[in-house]
Amino acid sequence: MKNIFCLLITMCVFFTGCTAIQQTSTPSMSSIPSNSSIDDDPSSSSPLADSDVMSENVSSKPILTEDASCTPSSDESPTPEPSEKPDDEEEPFDLDYTALLVDYSDSVDGVSCTVEYEFAERDRYEQITPSEKIQITIQQNKIEGTYRRSRYSAYNYYPEYVYTDKHNNLFYVDPDGNLVSCFWGQTVSDKDPLTREQCVDIGKAFAAEIFDISSYQLRVTDDPQGKFYRMKFTKPINGYKTSEFAEICVQYTGELYSFSSSMLGKINIDSNASIDEEKLKSAVYERVDALYAPIKDNYDRVEYGEVTYMITVLKDGSCGVICEINVDFINIRGEYSLVTGAYLSFVVT
To answer: How far is C-alpha 325 from the geometric centre of its chain's CA atoms?
Structure first.
């Protein structure tokens, strides 16, 4: 999967996933020595980064110090995170620190990337035939749906079955019949706009019908162009993101626009999760260094962005950490720098 976006500007041209030019007097990152290191912030990982944010139940990020076991759970509600144990009970997170490539986007010549791990557990779920007709309840209304197709989303190990109702509205359920996504779209209404707080209350009420919102952090951002509020429910583990989240968009008039989720109710951590960031970075650095070793000498310098971490549950029930990074390959051309970018995502198991 390669995404190349190029923008050429007379004095300074920047690219994401492709070649760019910038003045050498204003490099975007510090140089990395030849033995290299890495780090990043891909767009799909930080939907909460917004200047117009309302946040609830947000806690500071403590040092993670305890081992954890992760098991998929399809029929249990998410449980609140337990409190930390004393430092004298610290144990490392149970990983062997093997980094496998799960996603990438680059325009670096001379390198061929190959996806090494797929989150989807296809062998298991391809044996299951979805129901042609189902009935679910949405906002106390019984909705009948007709099966259209199946899909795997983001970090889910299970498929989502896509259905349409009699109005051709889309909704998605997991193999256990739980609603995981639906789309109504923009509603033409002559209603007066509601307040932000009223719209948030409507979104909360809808979410509470599907999952235990007390176990999640909530941030709300305003989308003036779409004319709706975006509500993001996330389930952190000791300050680290997890792949479990839900997003609800509520129009200014109070109508629901969309609902989507990832791994909803599937991540159960029975004790405080701990990860060793240094070991995770080392595992990622080693893979990136090896991947680009044949072509690094073709560039004047290589710069690594920040590594981001997201805890998840893999298809075998074990814990994994998704690590994402951006890498810039830079050649100096007089007053300017010619930059070729790459984005890589690994799962460390």
So the answer is: 13
pLDDT in tens, 6-40: 333 333 333 344 445 454 443 333 333 333 333 33
Higher pLDDT, 344 or 82: 344
State the amino acid at position 230 in one-letter form: R
pTM surpassing 0.85?
no
From 343, 345, 304, 290, select the one nearest 323 (Cα to Cα): 345
Q: What is the Cα–Cα distance from 83 to 66, expressed in whole angstroms?
A: 11
Instruction: Please tell me the distance from the alpha carbon of residue 173 to that of residue 47, in angstroms, as a whole number.
Output: 23
CA distance 210 to 196: 22
What 3-state DSSP class applies to 287? Answer: helix
DSSP 82-98: PPPPPGGG----S----
Structure tokens belonging to residue 117: 């791990």
The DSSP secondary structure of 98-147, one letter per residue, reads -EEEEEEEE--TT-----------HHHHTTPPPPSEEEEEETTEEEEEEE
Q: Is residue 185 classed exposed, middle or buried when 0-12, 13-18 and 19+ CB atoms within 10 A define those classes? A: exposed
Is residue 84 within 8 A of residue 64, CB to CB? The reply is no
Q: How far apart are CA 176 and CA 156, in angstroms?
A: 14
Secondary structure element (H or E) that encloses residue 327, with its range: strand 319-333
Residue 317 DSSP code:
S
Distances (CA, A) of 15 to 23, 198, 338: 13, 41, 10
* Beta pairing partners, 204: none
Contact 105, 42 (CB under 8 A): no
DSSP E strands in 184-285: the ranges are 217-223, 228-234, 241-242, 245-251, 256-262, 268-269
| b/e per residue 158-170 (b: at least 16 CB within 10 A) | bbbbbbebeeeeb
Which residue, 264, 308, 266, 323, is CA-closest to 103?
323
